[in-house]
Specification:
21 helices, mainly alpha, two-stranded antiparallel sheet, about 525 residues, 2 strands
């Protein structure tokens, strides 16, 4: 069998230096755009009057005294409050005790020993797509865990990192149930639909098409990984100190440890679930009751579940690892436990420095409004195109796809595009639900394909950690190309199928008005 040529090539530019180069490019570009007075406007619908109002976007220059003051006065604050850093450090505390107690090696051995490799990959992809509903925190949990899953399964950890990252990224546009992001998008969609009168969106309005997309996307990602990526990456050669398996079955201590951990997990899960069920006696304590939709109660700004979710997960990891250690007798005293908690933080200095420079890049880029400017320009293109029907649908899909690179935030982009896209599509006879579907589905195909996305640095950092030849930005993006292409083709085919056949998008929702 002829194997595809590996990606094991020398990285031209170190990821740290690549990010620094991007920072200087942003600074220079902001100065040029500001000097020439480049601006753009976009339409939104006034919530009170239901009529259009114009919004102007200009570029803030970093190549000025004011811009330089912003850089030097905000760099430390932006780094200390950079969400990927905080979430990663906290999650690694829990992952540390899971790994050092032996739970992960035992659990992953049990899983990978009994299941075919492609099934393990499919389950990982499926879980990442579905659990992306929890938001950005899924990156800092699944990427390190996926690397360990593949490593303990004697496979290249980089493949697990790639699968988890792309699955989470596209998962923001593929949700079986409405997520917190979907709820925010729906509010903007309903507001934009006011141009055509009152409009409401069912929380399960996209259930049918999303269920189909979830299964198909997980299958496609699994296929690309098993038939393409695994061969490209080549065999992973673990270091001598890394754990490998030379046994055929679990020991009695390991089985007892898994039993203790399983019982603890079930009890913890019951308590957690009971506290996110609204209006039950002594329950529902983790919800924000000021919100109307359940998903907003769960992930609202004042929800304890949302604000404390990373700690909830970390404490669960700690509990599972601790109970496993007691059962398997890998934790003999409190000193072992304390050492295990900090173990996963060893050797992450390079990751922290990468995150530092990434925090500068993301904050400066956001400050300049370059992404908003480009998105507003595309909004104007849609508005002035005079397209309708299929040409309009195709243009919206294209704009949703391309603008992701320059403005990854779904809510920020939809705030700019919805006031134009929704009314135009409804004028052509399509529902507002379908308009939001076009945006969210195509708008996440390239979500992980841009260094401007805050959590891209987690993917880049772990890729560089496990890639023997080192991983730069270009190389890390090349890994994603086959996945991006198949997911893009998937969405084009699915949307075409729904348009031609007229299948309902979900409960009480159709493509056409």
């Amino acid at each position: 069998m002829n194997r595809i040529k590996s990606f094991k090539t020398k990285v031209f530019l170190h990821p740290m230096m690549a990010i620094i180069v991007l920072i200087f490019l942003v600074i220079i570009l902001s100065g040029i755009l500001n000097l020439f007075g480049v601006s753009a406007s976009y339409n939104t619908v006034n919530a009170v009057t239901g009529s259009y109002q114009s919004n102007l976007v200009t570029v803030e220059s970093l190549f000025s005294l004011r811009g330089l003051k912003y850089i030097f006065s905000n760099t430390v604050a932006n780094f200390s409050s950079f969400a990927p850093l905080i979430m990663l450090l906290i999650s690694l505390i829990g992952i540390g005790i899971l790994e050092e107690s032996g739970f992960l090696s035992t659990f992953f051995f049990a899983v990978t020993k009994r299941l075919p490799k492609y099934v393990v990959t499919f389950i990982l992809s499926f879980l990442c797509v579905v659990l992306s509903i929890t938001g950005d925190v899924s990156y800092v949990i699944f990427i390190p865990m996926a690397a360990l899953l593949f490593k303990h399964g004697r496979r290249n950890p980089l493949a697990g990192i790639i699968v988890s990252f792309i699955s989470i990224s596209i998962g923001f546009g593929i949700n079986l149930f409405m997520s917190g992001i979907d709820s925010s998008l729906a509010e903007m969609t309903v507001l934009a639909a006011k141009m055509h009168g009152n409009y409401s969106m069912h929380s399960l309005g996209l259930l049918f098409i999303m269920f189909f997309a979830t299964i198909i996307s997980s299958i496609l990602i699994t296929y690309v990984c098993e038939k393409y990526t695994i061969y490209q990456l080549g065999k992973y050669e673990p270091d001598e100190e890394e754990i490998t398996f030379d046994k055929d079955k679990l020991t009695k201590r390991e089985v007892r440890g898994l039993l203790f951990a399983g019982i603890g997990f079930v009890i913890y899960a019951i308590i957690l679930i009971y506290n996110i069920i609204p209006y039950v006696p002594f329950g529902g304590n983790f919800l924000d009751y000021s919100q109307s939709r359940y998903i907003d109660k769960l992930f609202g700004a004042n929800s304890f579940f949302n604000s404390g979710f990373i700690f909830v997960i970390t404490f669960m990891f700690f509990l599972i690892g601790f109970l496993y250690g007691l059962g398997a007798k890998t934790i003999e005293d409190h000193r072992d436990m304390c050492d295990f908690l900090s173990k996963s933080l060893d050797g992450i200095g390079k990751i922290i420095i990468l995150i530092f420079f990434a925090s500068i890049l993301v904050s400066l880029y956001k400050y300049t409004n370059i992404g908003s400017l480009i998105t507003a320009l595309f909004s104007t293109v849609i508005y002035k195109s005079n397209f309708s029907g299929i040409p309009l649908v195709s243009l919206v899909m294209f704009v949703s796809l391309v603008t992701t690179i320059f403005l990854p935030s779904l809510t920020a982009r939809w705030e700019i595009l919805s006031g134009t896209v929704v009314p135009l599509l409804m004028t052509s006879g399509y529902t507002a639900n379908f308009a939001q579907l076009l945006f969210s589905s195509l708008g996440t195909v390239l979500y992980g394909f841009t260094p401007i996305m805050a959590y891209y640095v987690i993917y880049l950092s772990y890729s560089d950690k496990y890639d023997r030849g080192g991983t730069g930005i270009i190389k890390s993006l090349r890994y994603l190309i086959p996945y991006v292409l198949v997911i893009l083709a998937m969405w084009i085919i699915i949307i075409t199928l729904w348009l031609l056949v007229g299948i309902p998008l979900g409960i009480g929702t159709n493509v056409l008005l």
